[in-house]
Specification:
The protein has 334 residues and is α/β, with parallel strands linked by helices. It has helices spanning 6-18, 32-47, 98-101, 104-108, 141-151, 157-170, 181-192, 197-204, 210-221, 237-243, 248-257, 293-299, and strands at residues 22-26, 52-55, 73-74, 89-93, 115-120, 131-134, 224-225, 230-235, 268-276, 279-285, 303-304, 308-314, 316-320, 323-327. It has a 6-stranded parallel β-sheet.
């Protein structure tokens, strides 16, 4: 990617130079992109001997435990207590705003001075940093961080593996619409630096547990297609318990189902999951060029991207004679 971001890179390296302590933040429910980008910068800060903390409000899914440096990640809120917060530079990765990152409430309570750097690729980014490195055409935040660190010539094997992870997960293994020539160029450079591609694809795209696949089996069995072309399936708490699967196993179901033959009438995929009794979470996916599932998600009080979105609605999943339906819950009695 030829880019005009050189002056922003310079500002970022100068801010890091000046900082006494850097706080690196990955967004809530961390994925391969936010985790890979944060840990890549953490490795860079190790190399230059800059004190830092790598924070996330949620723990990393076991599928990402192979990431070098994952033991650096802390979820402890004590780092944000005004008496303890010692950082003077905050870098947030892959989050369109501070609310999505999960730290907005913590930041509100702080009164000391610090600089915010916002590194992201979401089209809806709110430009909330003092320095904003936002490239909406980039496949992933890891692709952006690759450009940044490559400009300082500091890529090593660990950094390369972290960054390759975000490239692989955000492009669905170079299959979805985020896959661009610049993404593949970045991936090629990362391979030359020693990124462990086999390990990454094993953990993030393959290597499902038997329990996860059993859960997928239930989801596949229940597929139905509406006349409008939405293919729907349901997963209940009971399914999770009976299959011995965890909630993280559900994330893969919608992505896996999003491989429908687009010559058929199927236009989008919806996975409904009763997260807690009376609360249903919906995940929407499509590969159809003309369909924007975020519009449907917004109608249902949620949001997201054109090709991947979600929502949460009150209701219970009910099965009568093999037919699944949502039974509305009465807010006053639920
Ligand atoms: Mn991303």
């Amino acid at each position: 990617m030829t880019n005009n971001y050189t002056s922003i890179y310079k500002q970022i390296f100068e801010a890091i130079d000046r900082a006494q302590h850097v706080m690196l933040v990955m967004h809530q429910k961390p994925d391969g992109d936010t985790a890979g980008a944060s840990l890549a910068v953490a490795h860079y800060l190790d190399i230059i001997g800059k004190p830092h903390t790598c924070f996330c409000v949620d723990t990393l899914s076991p599928t990402l435990h192979f990431l070098p440096g994952k033991e650096k990640i802390t979820t402890s809120p004590e780092h944000w207590h005004p008496a303890n917060a010692q950082f003077d530079l905050l870098i947030v990765f892959d989050a369109g705003d501070l609310k999505y990152s999960g730290i907005a409430d913590y930041v509100d309570k702080l009164s000391h001075d610090f600089t915010i750097i916002n590194i992201d690729h979401h089209a809806t980014n709110a430009q909330y940093g003092h320095i904003n490195l936002v490239m909406t055409t980039a496949s992933s935040t890891c692709e952006i961080v690759h450009e940044l660190l490559n400009s300082a010539n500091v890529l090593n094997k660990q950094i390369a593996t972290c960054l390759m992870t975000g490239l692989i997960t955000d492009t669905g293994g170079f299959t979805n619409l985020a896959t661009t020539a610049s993404a593949i160029t970045a991936a090629s450079k990362l391979l030359l630096k020693g990124a462990n591609l086999r390990q990454i694809t094993n953990h993030t795209l393959q290597n499902r547990s038997v329990n996860t696949l059993k859960l997928w089996g239930r989801a596949l069995e229940r597929l139905t297609q509406s006349h409008s072309g939405i293919v729907t399936t349901v997963i209940t708490q009971q399914d999770l318990e009976e299959c011995g699967a965890t909630e993280t196993a559900i994330e893969g179901v919608a992505n896996f189902l999003n491989s429908l033959d687009d010559q058929t009438t199927a236009k989008a995929v919806m996975v409904l999951y009763e997260r807690t009794p009376g609360i249903i979470k919906g995940s929407l996916r499509t590969t159809h060029p003309l369909i924007d599932v975020s519009k449907l998600a917004i109608l249902l009080g949620g949001g997201g991207h054109k090709k991947a979105a979600g929502f949460t609605v009150p209701g219970r999943l009910q099965c009568t004679n093999g037919q699944w339906s949502i039974e509305p819950t009465n807010a006053t009695t639920a």
